Amino acid sequence: MPDSIPTTAGRTATAENVSDGVGPDIASFTLENGLDVVVVPDHRVPVVTHMIWYRNGSADDPIRHSGIAHFLEHLMFKGTEKHPAGEFSKVVSALGGQENAFTSYDYTAYYQRVAREHLETMMEFESDRMANLSLDPAVVAPERDVVLEERRMRVETDPGAQLSEAMAAALYVHHPYGIPIIGWMHEIETLDREHALTYYKRFYTPENAILVVAGDVEPDDVRVLAERTYGKIAPHGERPKRVRPFEPEPRAMRRVAVADPRVEQPLMQRMYLTPSALTGTGRDSVALEVLAELIGGGPTSYLYRKLVLERGIAVNAGSWYMSSSVDDTRFAVYAVPTAEVSLEQLEEVVDFAIANIAAEALDDKSIERAKTRLIAETVYAADSQSSLARIYGSALAIGETIASIQQWPSEVDAVTREDLVSVAERYLIPRRSVTGQLRKAG
Amino acid sequence: MTIAVQPVSASPAKAERIITPAGIEVWHSRSDLVPLVSMSFVFEGGAAQDPHDRPGIAQMLSRLLDEGAGPYDSDAFQEKLADKAIELSFTASQDSLSGGLKTLLRHLDDAAELTRIAVAEPRFDADSIERVRGQIIAGIRYQMNDPGVMATKRYFAEGFGGHIYGLPNSGTQESVAAITRDDLTTMHGRLIARDRLKVAVVGALGEADVTRLVDGIFGGLPAKADLTPVPRVTLSGLGTRHVVDLDVPQSVIRFGLNGVARSDPDFTAAFVLNHILGGGAFTSRLFQEVREKRGLAYSVGTSLASYRACAMTWGFTATKNERVVEALEVIASEMARLKADGPDADELLKAKAYLTGSYALGFDSSTKIAQQLVQIAFEGLGIDYISRRNALVAAISAEDIARAAERTLGDGRMLVVVAGRPEGL
């Protein structure tokens, strides 16, 4: 999702293994208790990236408990029966490792980066908190305060972030992707230990998790260590089913605005409801990825050239598309007006530009350039074991396969002009959209 | 479990030093894992070279280098980059103007030529200048009421009033509006030269290719830079508090005091001490006392800043308006406690274990290696620094820490800036 100054950073990188043979040989297997394991070798430095991904995210928060997936992520650092609060972090630190965790709409992940000889220790601790989290009531309230401060930092002090929240809520009239990952303020305040443990017992099971190990490792060694640690956790039976309401077919164009006295630089955003890598049929999703790069991926993109260079009515313009999503997702366009131009004038030109994509934006050179950039990113990503671990983990956590990741560059290559016209005409239309304005109040 | 403080071991990256025929120093690390090349480079002199009445020139210069060069106007230049997915970018900070290039190996020749003209022959076309001017001003306006940005700006203004460091690197709306083409070409002529340039290249290239690459890109630049000496300065306003009034529910706090420079023999001890106080891990004193125990903040930390003309220890946190006073008290008391009692022996051992053990984690991609190498070169630490660094950390004693605490935690009087509506302040 976009930062407070809109950039191209909103796109989820699905760039993976390249079609010209560069990139590691991925190994994968499943333990008896259902834990999926992926190994991504990279022998450049004697370091491993150890990640566990749970197939649940904020979109799986129960009614009235928005933010519980994220709150649980915080609480996972607060102790098990065997290891009290903070001990895991102390050990990681003493071993010279770095760690963190994050929650998204569709998954929650925990990771450490350590020297390769400490991999088993990481697995011991991580598997322990997968099964044995025990929350001392005294730690829950301060951590809830931390989450409230986090929300204040990210949203309450930032009108741009408030606009993004309002847009998601308007784009999704029914699906929980319209609820912020961190939760609504008034619901975070009511989250407690019982909510967290209920959610934990439902989703934090070996069948529902994916272990990704990238770095200076051999798959067979990883298997042995995984069985010795994660393998000891009894299976729960079936992977929990995620039940989300689907979005109805959109009928109405929506508009939202955040007007705040602190805003000095107005901007506009537009979001369209579109299929994702999982819900899209045929080449729709990969075509939308190419289209996002083509119309708004940087200074040679269609929107930048038209709005910033040709017309001089914007200081910046771009687009992004979040393909990696279990359910229908968002395709965004943004523009920042020059000082003399109103948001209404800007929007008129944006609308005209989008309506004319088929006629004006899809020359061969532009299509080629967009594909080149997307495919090159897969080579660049292969340079970083952490990037590779994230790419595989996030794709598998939403339900893609290793094969689909590895085939992605050739699918990008196969996108035709007709594909691009087709997705633009079917999805970038007003009734599928919400338009947002950030403006100065008063 | 045994805590192991990593001694001098296998260096996390092996680098060779090359002096090219044009006299440019390059640090080179070969890596054939991925067919790409990553180059980082840095010119001495940045925003601190701006005239006092017109801050923002160096930064605007850095933003114009990829906006048209040689025979290509801005759009044509960007198209040449994008056609081959070549990534080229520039940025300016207080003391430097730096750049990064990332390219697939097969497009290296094109990437080199584009980099060469961006650095040596930027066009500064009128429409590019106006467009970038508008972008910079829009950025300044966008951040005008961001409490984090406002706290930092006020902190520098109070701490370095009258000195160039006290002015924002990006300039102000007024100063950026006044920058002329001559300002930009003059700054370019002053900064962009061979003698104060450092380069690092990482990738699937051998020494001969690297030499050719670097001289091809930078060899034609003027021999000598023309830099204005930046007067040494120390942080002012210790013991004072300043409030930037913003109608927000959460205040951002910036706090700091004088520190030790990168080249100071006590820097490593100060670095270890800072890690214990408020460095990156979840185990720091401030993380534990401010966040974990009291839930006062999501983010709290301290760091060492070493600029060419001064050094400081400074930190950051953000908490709701009602708890600002409490947060300041906890921070001050933790700093005083650490200075008075020092870390206990186990805490010091663990800090060193973390810092030595995690060092290799900063070297796991070509871009990170290139950036680390050029930073080490820029600080004049020597190409063997990477293999010496862990031994330096491992050798830090309790006495070293005590001395560093004396020099960097001082008498506890700090410059404090709060942006928000803090209660009781």
Low-confidence stretches of chain A: 1-22
Order of H and E elements of chain A: EEEHHEEHHHHHEHEEHHEEHHHHHHE
What separation lies between the terminal Cα atoms of chain B? 46 Å
Please give the share of residues in helix of chain B.
40-55%
How much beta of chain A, percentage-wise?
15-25%
Tell me the total number of β-strands of chain B: 13
Going across the major beta sheet of chain B, what is the strand order? 1-2-8-3-7-6
H/E element sequence of chain B: EEEHEEHEEHHHHHEHEEHHEEHHHHHE
Categorize the overall geometry of chain B. Answer: globular
Number of helices of chain B: 15
Overall pLDDT of chain B? 95
Provide the helix percentage of chain A.
40-55%
Top CATH class of the largest domain in chain B: Alpha Beta
Output the number of helix runs of chain A: 16
Task: Please specify the SSE layout and strand pairing.
The complex is a heterodimer of chains A (442) and B (425).
Chain A: E1 27-30, E2 36-41, E3 47-54, H1 68-75, H2 87-94, E4 98-103, E5 108-115, H3 119-131, H4 137-156, H5 159-171, H6 185-188, H7 193-203, E6 209-215, H8 219-228, E7 254-260, E8 267-274, H9 284-296, H10 302-310, E9 314-321, E10 329-337, H11 343-355, H12 357-361, H13 364-381, H14 385-398, H15 402-414, H16 417-427, E11 433-440
Parallel strand pairs in A: 2-6, 7-11
Antiparallel strand pairs in A: 1-2, 3-5, 3-6, 4-5, 8-10, 8-11, 9-10
Chain B: E1 16-19, E2 25-30, E3 36-44, H1 57-64, E4 68-69, E5 72-73, H2 74-83, E6 87-92, E7 96-104, H3 108-120, H4 126-142, H5 147-159, H6 173-178, H7 181-191, E8 197-203, H8 207-218, E9 241-245, E10 250-258, H9 267-278, H10 285-293, E11 300-306, E12 311-320, H11 324-341, H12 345-357, H13 366-378, H14 385-394, H15 398-408, E13 415-420
Parallel strand pairs in B: 2-8, 9-13
Antiparallel strand pairs in B: 1-2, 3-7, 3-8, 4-5, 6-7, 10-12, 10-13, 11-12
Helix pairs in contact in B: 1-7, 3-8, 9-12, 9-15, 10-11, 12-14
